[in-house]
Fold these 2 entries.
Entry 1:
Amino acid sequence: MIHILLHFVVPLAVAFVFYRSRWRYGFWVMIATMMVDVDHLWANPIYDATRCSIGFHPFHTMPAIVLYAALFVFPLVLRRSAADQSLHSAAFVIHLVGLGLLIHMALDWIDCLV
């Protein structure tokens, strides 16, 4: 139960600390990334408390995590090369999606250690 709670508390804290002017928007975009758990529906059984999600479910594999990292970093790299230092709306969403997915994977990985 704590694991599920962390999937809400951590994005809320990150949104509030790092995206304070748009923390509500950032929070809801990162919460939407929990849809990544749809890949649990393809497993049998759907839920297994002893199973490590990382490396088992298709959207929880290392190639997927590398893609999530790219989604997080790419808008920042584009911003750095542009004269305008603010993230445009679409780039901001992509950045937040990548961040939300990385947070999700990190929290799922912590469960694998316990």
Entry 2:
Amino acid sequence: MLKHGLDFDVLTVLSATIDALAMAIVICWPQRAVAHDDHEGESVQMRRRVLGWQRLMSALFVGGVLFVVKLVPFAYLGVHAFGFIRLIYVDAVVVLPLIGLCILLRSMTRPRGMRPASGSMHALALIMLSAAGVGYYTTYYEPFNLQLETPVFEASQSRKPAEAIRIGILADIQTSRVTDYERHALARLMEQSPDLVLLPGDLFQGSADETEAQAVELVGLLKLLDVPAGSFFVTGDVDYRPRIEPILRRAGVRLMDQQIERLRVGESQILLAGVSIQYRSPSSLETIRRFEAMDADGAIKILMAHRPGVVRHLSAKSDIDLVVAGHTHGGQIVVPGFGPPITLSVLPRSVAKGGLHDVDGHALYISRGVGCERGQSPRIRFNCPPEITLLTIQ
């Protein structure tokens, strides 16, 4: 909700409608054939194209000017950077296809005496129309195309478990309302029979009232995590501890912010530490140093944090075996041959896009997450499907 009780979804529709109408008016504005004198002095009419490149550029220019004009009042109303990204996205997958349709219709219904739009203009119109299909895919298909990732981590010889340890990872569920999608994600992970489950933050994105309204559903969701060694959570960007802690407690999920716990998994042991979202705070850094100083006694040391940048704060000779994090969502959009344009991480894009990596000699696993950024952000994924993870340590 924005200032003065305005709904951002309504503002998005209004913004797109204004852009579409303004550009469509420029595209469809009627024009006449031009008269000129021939070499014998007689007046003749030239057949002009009903739509030329100059008219299209004018329409795009008008759309761009309108968007810039909206920046200041929309920012005043509370639209932030992700909100403007959403406005641009809606223009790209809704307004541009409408303009492409206008070009084709204008050419088909041209007045007598006017030439149709050129072949290249028709081709561009079809490309614009195809953006609607891309928008459908990135909004309604890929965000729900849940993948099961099964990375394998080789522990050092001195800490190899007696039997393989199966760790479920559920990062960035980040729902605003518990649906069958979230239930399916957790149930599918439970089908893999993990020994324990790690949840590196961002469980629920909503207001205090929305959290209270969904509390029972969230407890029921987390209770699906019935695993031998337990389930463990650290807070993320959208987790307000006073709201989320009672939900975790009722669901039997252990909050690990600034905590260290020794777990037994079969004949093996895991030393698990967690730090809060503020991983550079004195309390988080003190937890990391205390964890590094602890005698593992053959146990595998795992550090869990929401933001993967925590790996940069390990000691050069740290004996922490593995860092598990989320936060980046894999970038949500991954450009083939380039990677994710945005990851909101201090780590290189090649690492922040997710998976198992070595960073300065430290093993790091980053989950692409179950959900998407909510609030004003567009719900989109492209070439970056959501994931649940079963990480095997052997």
